[in-house]
Amino acid sequence: MPDPLDALRLARQRVEPPPEFARELLDRTASMVATPAVVTTAPASAPQNAAEDALDDALERLADAAPEFDPFRIGFCISNHAPMAAEALCMLGRPDVIVPWVDRYAKYLDPTPPSAAPIAADEWREALRDYGRVADWIAFFTIELADQDWIDVVNRWLIRLAPGAAMGTHGFVRVGHALRAVGRRDSALRRQELAVALAYLATMYETLPEAPAPSAGLSPSEALARIEQLPLRDRTGWLAFTQPLEKLRGLPSFASVTSLVDLDGDPSEFLTDLTEAVAGLLVTNVAVVSPRALVHALTAGAAARMMLPYLSDEATVLSLRYGWQIAASFYAGLVLEPGVSDVAPPVESVEELVDEAVACLDEHGIKTLEACLREYVLNPNPVYLVAARESTRCLEATGLHLR
To answer: What is the pTM of this model?
Structure first.
């Protein structure tokens, strides 16, 4: 392995993954950049089938688990990442890890709370923002997805729910993973996971301030430089990342964030520009800001990538708009250091980075690595690999370890 100090002296390079790795990952990401609702894929290979089968096994084991759980029984609930991590491992081609990882994590999960009352189709707004109704929402979406085309259901509800994604970050990401999984293999089991994901997004629905205005026509990377941040005292000392995000309600300029960017161009190019800039922020900030919080600027900001093949034009624009708002909110509320654009490539191979993320005991390691590789395959800038490596190592050092 090259000496790390020698690697730091290298000029910026594009680092290409091994051909076989790139080929497999490109096969899996091809559907992410296809024409919406028209996805053509080659027959699945044996390793891909093994990974998909392992994902189904994991989802079956997780079928009764609630979207949130209290791992230490102290009244502090966190999001259930198991279905998302399992789907990410499937995309990474690691069927050997999926079920053991889920079994370890599942020991801490809580069962879905009991139903309260059915949600009427014309009264759904009254049930928003109420996690106590999560079972009712799951039942509602289970029926919707059983009776209707799942693409139609997703488009209708993302248009309604995307504006509340900024504070419902995990629900937005979970919908992305669930939607991508159904797109590869449509089954009752995967539709059920999609129902849970949509239900979670509905119960977490909460908007941030937004004042419609003419678009400034900026790219995400240009717009980030225009965003006012909270005072330093408000960007530090928090326990849950929702605390500084809530303070954005008192920052008048934040309401104009969604009007800064140009949403009329190519959605894939928009996401590439956004994720490259956010990856640069991760490189410089995960060691000084809680990595469990900050990585959501990338995983949630880029969640629309997983959804693009299945979205209508309107749902695409809204998913990009509010994915951007999520990334912008983390920048305004949490980021402490400027990002980087030029980085030396890591000395580790892609396979080594995958192995390191899989071994990380914090569930965000796998999801962040997969999101970075998803973008890296489309835009081979080493900043994604360095962001993944630094995030994994900081998560291993300071993250939550459920053994």
So the answer is: 0.90
